[in-house]
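Hi R.,

Here's the chain you asked about this morning:
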Amino acid sequence: MVRIVYLGKFADWAGRDEEEFEAPLDWEGLAQRVEPRIAEELRGDRAHISLDGVVLADKQALSAKDGSEVALLPPVSGG
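And here is the predicted structure, written out as tokens:
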């Protein structure tokens, strides 16, 4: 299983802080399983994904295996 951690507004939108999906999990699989508005936000340039604590430069390169943790990082606001 792959542990998905929702942070910030993504946790609000998902209605939970985390959940698990079957491994392996790639970008398309993630986008299909999360809430549509989370997937839409992740497709933008301001939201990020980390895999096992490392922020991915290319979200579409996501390749999570059994036991991995994927954190969904919403855009940061403020100034």
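One quick note: Residues 2-73 form a domain with the Ubiquitin-like (UB roll) fold (CATH 3.10.20.30).

Cheers,
M.
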